[in-house]
Amino acid sequence: MNQRMDLDGAVAPGFDAVATAFERNFDELGEIGAAVAVYHERRLVVDLAGGIDPVRGRAFARESLMMVASCTKGAMATCVLMLADAGVLDVDEPVARYWPEFGQAGKGDIPLRSVLSHQAGLPYPDPEAELHGLDQLAGPRLLRQLERQARWWPPGTAFAYHPVTSGAILGEVVRRVTGQTMGQWFADHVAGPLELEFWIGLPPALDDRVAPSVWEKGRDARNDERAPDAGPPAGSYAARRLAAIANLPPMDPDPHDPASRRAYFGIEVPAAHGIANARSLARMYAALLDEVDGIRLLSPDMLAAATTPLTDGLPALIESGTTGPDIRFGLGYQLSSPSMPGLSPASFGHTGAGGRLGIADRDLRVAFGYVCNSMRDIGPGGDARWAPLLAAVRRCIDRRGANSRSTRA
Predict the structure, then answer these.
(1) Is-contact 321 377, C-beta < 8 A?
(2) Quick check: helix, strand or coil at residue 153?
(3) pLDDT, tens digit, 9 for 90 and up, residues 184-197
(4) Assigned domain for 392 exists
(5) What whole-number distance in Å separates Cα of residue 160 and Cα of residue 153?
(6) How far apart are CA 220 and CA 216, in angstroms?
(7) Does the reported pTM lie above 0.85?
(8) Which residues contact 270 (CB under 8 A, 6 or more apart)?
(9) Which domain holds residue 200?
C-alpha cells in the first residue's frame, strides 16, 4: 500500500480516488472526524482516517472507536445466521420454540425470520410499559415486557423498523440456544477469529478510545429515528410509535461523565450499541463474501438466503431517520435502496444513526466500512457523505476491471 502523508492510513494502488473523495468530504461537506475502509476481493485496499475528536481534543485515527448504532444489526444478523448455518436454530421456527415465554399474548407463531426482517409487530415496548432509562434497551425488565406484550400488527401484513427490540428478541434466542449472550458469542465466533475491534458490550479498559458523537445543534438524538413533525392521528401506529420514542433515553452517553459512558458502552444492546471502527466493519462484511485469512462467516447458500428480499411489496409503516421510508430487508441485513444506496443492486448491510455505514456487494466482491463523529439525520437519499465515497470506490473497481480485460485481450 502507498503511504499518504496527509491522512492517517493508506490506499492500495488504483484506489487513490477514494482518498480524494474522503478529503473532499472534510472540505465540502463539513466532516469533523471520520474513517473509511474498503476490502476488495479479500484484500484491504483502503484504510484511512482524518480530522479530530473535538470533545476529547485529539486526532481521529483509524484506531478510534465509535458506537456505531444500528450498524450493530449487521453483526447481530451475522451471529443468528451463522447459528442457522450450523443447524443450531432455524429461522423458520417460531421464536417461542426457543423462548417459550415469548409465546404469550398470541405471539406463539412469530418466526425468527419475521424478527430479522422487522415484520414481528413489536417495534418498541408499549408506551404504557413501566420501563425507564436503559431498561428500555436491554435487560430482564425489557424481556419480560416483550414476553407479555401483544404484537402491534399481524406478522406478514406489514413491516416497520424495530430499532432495539429486534436485538433484544434475537439476543435472548441466542442466549437460550448457546448459553452465551449475543456479545459473548459474537466475540468468540466472529470478532475474535477475525481479530476485529468490534464489541457488543465494550470492556471497561477501552472506554477512553471511544470518540463521542457530535450531533448537529438542536438535535434531540433519542433513537435511530426522528419523530415526524406533524402530529399523527390518535390511536394510529404513528402515534403509538411517537409515544414510545418519547420514552426512550438519549442515544448517546454524556461524554464528560465516565459513569454514563460505562453504562452505555458496557451494556449489550445487540441492535444498537456495538462499538467498532471502520476497518472492522469492512473486514466483517468481507468475511461474509469470501474467506478472509482462512475465515468465512456464512456459506454461499446462507448468504444468498440472507440477501433475498423479504419486505418488497409489504406496506412499510411510517419510518424516518436512519432507515428512510424506502427500506428493504432480507434476513437481518438492509438491502440496496435509495436510503442505503450501496454500490449496486447486489449491496447489503446496515446503516447506523448519524451516518455510519457497513455494507458489502456480492457482485463486486467489495466490503465497505465508514464511521464519523459528525452526526446527521439520514434522509431518503442516504447520507450526503456516502455518495462521493461509494462513487469513488465503484470507479476504482470499474477501472481495474477494464484494465484487466484490456490486459487479457
Answers:
(1) yes
(2) coil
(3) 999 999 999 999 99
(4) yes
(5) 10
(6) 9
(7) yes
(8) 72, 73, 75, 76, 79, 167, 168, 170, 171, 182, 183, 200
(9) 2-78+187-408
